[in-house]
Specification:
Layout lengths: L8 H4 L9 H10 L25 E6 L5 E6 L4 H10 L1 E5 L2 E6 L18 E2 L2 E2 L10 E5 L1 E6 L4 H5 L1 H5 L10 H8 L2
Antiparallel strand pairs: 1-2, 2-8, 3-4, 4-7, 5-6
């Protein structure tokens, strides 16, 4: 199967490295005026191109104000759902609810060497879209709604989400975790 973002891969990542690069996919789709459905075709944690027809995961993330937002998230693997729930925050950006992380370019020297997609200038990521809080959008949370009860995936993520960032050793999100906590 050909994934809908595959033809754009080398434009977004000319050197081939998409590690932890959901922010660059989000930026590209938004700045190029592409179909909003393409936000279902990449994993915001790993930067992997994914099948938009594959069922998404139900996740619960912080709203930054003490509450939570639930919604569907398109991902490449189970650990990425865990990382979304642990490291992102839901924010409204225009007409969509996005998942955001702090801008890692505030401290570019802390970005792992394996992560090369971020273009840093004067403490900001140039190839990302900033939210009103100054964080960067990495993906769209589909069908967002207020929620309070944990979702089933949270129990499956308990071990990973209790592991200190520096000790994470499985899943493509290990690099993302380091970027999200710069």
């Amino acid at each position: 199967m050909a994934y809908p973002l595959s033809p754009h891969y080398r434009t977004v990542f000319p050197h081939g490295n998409r590690n932890a690069a959901g922010a660059q996919w989000f930026h590209y789709i938004e700045t190029q005026g592409l179909s909003q459905d393409l936000h279902k075709a990449y994993c915001g944690v790993s930067g992997s191109v994914v099948d938009p027809e594959r069922p998404p995961a139900l996740v619960r993330v912080s709203d930054g104000a003490g509450g939570h937002v639930c919604g569907e998230y398109h991902l490449c693997c189970h650990p990425c759902a865990c990382d979304v729930m642990r490291f992102t925050q839901a924010e409204v950006l225009g007409d969509k609810t996005v998942l955001s992380i702090p801008d890692p370019c505030v401290r570019p020297e802390k970005i792992p060497a394996q992560v090369t997609a971020f273009k840093c200038s004067d403490g900001k990521t140039e190839n990302a879209i900033h939210t009103t809080s100054g964080r960067i959008a990495i993906a769209v949370l589909q069908n967002p709604r207020a929620c309070s009860d944990p979702v089933p995936k949270e129990a499956q993520c308990a071990e990973r989400n209790a592991t200190p960032v520096e000790d994470l050793r499985w899943g493509m999100g290990d690099l993302f975790a380091r970027v999200a906590t710069v």
